[in-house]
Amino acid sequence: MNTQRWMSSQFFTFYLTWGVFLPYWTGWMIHTKGISISQASLIMSLGLVVRGISTLMAYPYFSRKFSSKTLLNGMAIGTLVSILCYIPSNSFASILLVTLLINFFYPTLMPALDTAAGILVQSKQLKHYGKSRSWGSIGFVVAGMVLTVFTGALGDVVILWALLIGTMVFVGLGLMPAPLVLSEKPQPNPTKKARMLNLFRIKHFGLVLVIVILLQAAHATYYTYGYIFLQEIHSPKYLIGVILNIAVIAEIIFFLIADRYFQRFSAGSLLALSALGSTVRWILVFIFPNVLVFSISQVLHSLSFAMGHYAFMKYLIKNIPHQQIPNAQGMYSALALSWSTAVFTIFGGYLYEIEPRFAFIGMIVCSIPSMVLALVYRKLEK
């Protein structure tokens, strides 16, 4: 088996479905299920809370009981069942319950895939993490491009079927042979239990975690208000999707070249560069609120997001013991990718109501402290 190809196909298929769920799901609930915007916002917010709980607590717990392959397959099947439950759901209460259910299973696939990749790199079976992860970003872009065509022709009803078919493909791939190391059940070690709090005994883990939490939180305004801000600055509607995809394309390019050009950089150096790129990005959007500069600033997503994520994976692979990787991934996914984004979305929303540009410049309250802490860590790791 070609491990690189296996990991790439897993990333591609998962992010193909994520490219359907993340940008389109709120619209699907509003336009096909008939719920209000406020109800949809409440549903997705509560889903984000469950997502954080699941990745922080449930995923690390199950990872101590089951192999990576079993866990991936179990969560994928749970996701598939949850999507099927949407079909008969038509009331606010039923849609809320199904959304909470899918947010228990579905988002855990993200740290589960990164954990599998980390294990394969540590066991010398996967040579290029960045190359495989870039296929995830490619899948995300492909989903957006293809779905735009189908929703334009057939309406938003196709969003559910696109997510359903993509998840079925992911489940099918999970039933195929995988690298044997991923089928190994975790062995309990009474002398060295993989407790989550023990992560903070690992050198600099707490500091690195705070840095990546701040780095990811700085994207809250972009993720939530980027689409309507482009409308605010009079971007042509047919270009909005293209402009938003510039960030993902930049991310793809970074992951493709990361192992070749950034392997020699320390995690601290990469985190500092990521924070610098993030700060410059939000300052540009604030000072020059026009379509051209916003489009150019999208290229910096390769630094603000992709480089920060790559740096965390670099630190994890080098410093975190095998049995603690699921705990570290669960904590990163919950605190950096879920809850911090939720908190700063509220902060960004408050600023957006005052002046849309303020919501973007407000994100430097995350990026500048993360840059200072990254420079401190860079000195400590030498």
UniProtKB/TrEMBL annotation:
Membrane-spanning intervals of the chain: 12-31, 37-59, 71-89, 95-113, 134-153, 159-183, 204-226, 238-258, 270-288, 294-312, 332-352, 358-377
Keywords tagged on the record: Cell inner membrane, Cell membrane, Membrane, Transmembrane, Transmembrane helix, Transport
Membrane topology: Multi-pass membrane protein
Top-level taxon: Bacteria
Main location as per UniProt: membrane
Residue ranges of domain Major facilitator superfamily associated in the record: 6-360
Any GO CC annotation of this UniProt entry: plasma membrane
GO molecular function: lactose binding; lactose:proton symporter activity
Cellular localisation: Cell inner membrane
Pfam families to which the protein is assigned, alphabetical: MFS_1_like (PF12832)
Record-given protein name: MFS transporter
Organism whose genome encodes this protein: Neobacillus citreus
